[in-house]
Amino acid sequence: MTGENIELPEGALPFLQHQAVDCLQPDIISSGGITGTKKIADLAALYRTPITLHNVSGLLMNAASQQLAASVFNCPRIECTRRADRLEWAVPNPLLVKNGKMQVSNAPGLGVELDPAFLEAHRYKGETGWA
User: Fold this and answer.
1) What is the mean pLDDT of each run of 10 residues along the chain (131 residues)?
2) Three-state DSSP state, 51
3) Contact 81, 58 (CB under 8 A)
4) C-alpha span between 12 and 40 (Å, rounded)
5) Is 90 domain-assigned?
6) CA gap 91, 57 in Å, rounded
7) Residue 3 domain-assigned?
């Protein structure tokens, strides 16, 4: 399958059509964002194939993955970074993890309210302020 990218719906389709996978593991960052990853989930659902969201990109991705997983029926689990329930730069902490399960936030957007004072205090040297 030269030139195909399994991270996009058209790349995943042959694997689903031939029942070559038991599960797909798209990553929101490399699969077209939330919309692209939702398309993959919807396509996989047509073939009764679950997805497990891949996430090694940080704490905001945990929040995005949580919201996407809650919006589709064929995503029984997500990969989550360590210390997902210990956000120092968000108030209040939107991610509640207990016994391996994450409570879905019902706050607007990704459910994350950033702490501007923390972010300002931890800027890289030479970086301009937050717009």
Assistant:
1) 68 94 93 94 97 84 90 91 70 75 84 82 79 56
2) strand
3) yes
4) 8
5) yes
6) 20
7) no
